[in-house]
Amino acid sequence: MLYRKIASVIEEHLKTEPDVILLIDGARQVGKTYIVRYVAGKLFRNFIEINLADDYNGERIFEKVRTTDDFYTIVSAFAGDRMNKKEDTLIFLDEIQTYPHLIAMLKFLRQDGRFTYIASGSLLGVTLSHVPSIPMGSIETIRMYPMDLEEFLIANGVGKEALDDMRAKFLSHESLNEGLHTRILDLFKRYLIVGGLPEAVKTYVEEKNIQKIRRYQTLTHGLYAADSAQYDSEHKLRISRIYNLIPSNLENKKKRVVINDIEPERPRANRFSYYTDEFDYLISAGIALDVKAVSTPVFPLCQTTTKNLVKLYMSDVGLLTNIFYGTNIQAVLYDEKSIKLGSVYECVTACELAAHGFDLFYYDNKSKGEVDFLVDDHKYLCALSLEIKSGKDYTVHGALSGFVSNEDYNVKHGIVFSNNREVRQNGKIIYLPIYDIMFIEEFDDGNADW
Predict the structure, then answer these.
(1) Mapping DSSP to helix (H, G, I), strand (E, B) and coil, where does residue 237 land?
(2) pTM (2 decimals)?
(3) What average pLDDT is seen over the chain?
(4) Is 375 helix (H, G, I), strand (E, B) or coil?
(5) What average pLDDT score do residues 294-306 get?
(6) What region does 173 belong to: left with phi over 0, alpha with psi -120 to 50, or beta?
């Protein structure tokens, strides 16, 4: 059993709010079905799982269901012996995006109240935008991501005591000892290779078979690129093109999407707004993470975003390192001077921040440079600036230094994450080891000294 933090969230919801139907949204292969089965096994005597994608590709018996009576009749035909009381019967509608009309029906299933329900979908973010009658008040949607760094560490034997010690040192602004630092940094680099897709993590933990992991990642990347079947051929090609351009964009100095590269044969299609549907698909489907540009950071950051300056990152860092390096894991594990890992470190940071619920922004100012990430600091109503360094020159950060010294921005601190072990502060700049990104939610930049 791979530990997933979201399991406790689902369990708490089913215990305290069973009348509100939980929809688990997320990209394919992030473990939605597995985690629902796990929680259901703990809480319910009767568990009925309906894979609507399998139904659509088979008999399509749910295709014309329009009433709750129709729904119950069909379910009872194959699971009638498990349809008991609400408190001991959970019906799981997997891949519910296959039949959007069933999303609208959730309101009536909730009102009827015969059973407890939960649903999941790999393209719910896309589907919900096309559902004419979203059952507001009857559903709650949560997004599931690949396994984050902490979950990966736990899967690889890092115990609660060690993690508690790391968290305590983070909060008290102390560095780890050399031995623990070396161990955690090594696992962090392995996380860059394996990523957080549960099947890849499971394979690594059980077999340490990098070739098998890379084959799985290649298949998953292809699945993501081809998953836009609901669109016409023109939109599908654009979606696939933008998705496949992400790695090469990240290798550019600016790392942001270059609109002219999407369809260079169509020079008139050079406006960001021309590709709104394609970007919405990639982001809503959970297969790409968008980081919006901010030139004047005012809290909340969403007020001052520049919509046509966007960076896209892969939603799983293992998919990116597979594209870049394949099975040559030496490029990631060891400090080879010829290999620059900046885009990989930025990608894992974007994945980690997204998994912890942060909206993603970066600072882009023509005269003052760029800062890798900005997130809202809700405690002090300002921007928290993050610079990600993969090399030994982690103390070189002109744009970040200028950013935190600008009194108009009201920034208390900027953070530099790097491979360096030592936690220290120089003026407003705080230096932290890269693995401390997993504790960023608990960062308190109101403390005077680090």
Answers:
(1) helix
(2) 0.94
(3) 91
(4) strand
(5) 87
(6) left
